[in-house]
């Protein structure tokens, strides 16, 4: 039987996180609060790095890119999810699904790669301090950051082309709260084995390659820490790298549970809960983790507040 392609007319219906009205209202309030805090927290990091000359270092350059990524990442999906929670249902056209899913995938892939670059930056700073200034000069910083953005975009484009070359036939229901492209394959009418192999290969490249760089970098950093004689040196290194490790553990742990784990073992309801972690929770925790015990950020905030108080005095 010929499969009719419904995506050009009716699009997709998102089942969301819950169908109960009271739960939808509660989730709307929680998600809206988290969204505003995420934007404000990451925007604060961007502003501080931009205006404070002492933060014009490679580590904070990459941190400002991470903050920009998190704002864009959470904005790509959460406002639409909030609208769906108010309406009680979610309907997306095929174009809307491509834009939402493709943007989220591009930004998520870029963040995976950028976290690997940040680990490499810490490795150079701690294990090769004499080479650090030349190896991580301004040109290299921009090259690494731009490469992450470009590769993330290309991964998204390849995924979109691979998925939407298939025919889709009813039911057009997606058991998710946003249009995550990988899960559209369950609605395809034809054989998706080859496409799934390609997407698995992309996932391995985007997730496991930077994760391997992170493991290598921090194994070298730990070895350097054990060779240090100074307790103050131990504390400084741990305080510098601990926040990055916390972000990596949360982000990669949730991403791997969906994109690296065999598809047959995944549960749609569990996938939605895991997606909340890497799409909503992680972008909120990033500014908290990176600023809570960061003395440089604290110093920059105090400097800005003192400057503002001085300017307001008659």
What can be said about this structure in brief?
The protein is an all-alpha fold. Helix content is 74%, strand content 3%.
Characterise the protein shown here:
Belongs to the G-protein coupled receptor 1 family. This protein has 314 residues and is an all-alpha fold. The protein has one domain (11-312): Rhodopsin 7-helix transmembrane proteins (Rhopdopsin 7-helix transmembrane proteins, Up-down Bundle), CATH 1.20.1070. 74% of the residues lie in helices and 3% in strands. The protein has ten helices and three strands; from the N terminus they run E-H-H-H-E-H-H-H-E-H-H-H-H. The chain is globular.
Would you state the CATH class? Mainly Alpha
* Contiguous runs where pLDDT drops below 50 for at least 5 residues: 1-8
Determine the structural class based on helices, strands and strand pairing.
Answer: mainly alpha
Look up the CATH topology. Answer: Rhopdopsin 7-helix transmembrane proteins
Overall number of strands: 3
Largest sheet: 3 strands, mixed
User: How would you describe the shape?
Assistant: globular
Query: What is the CATH H-level superfamily?
Result: Rhodopsin 7-helix transmembrane proteins
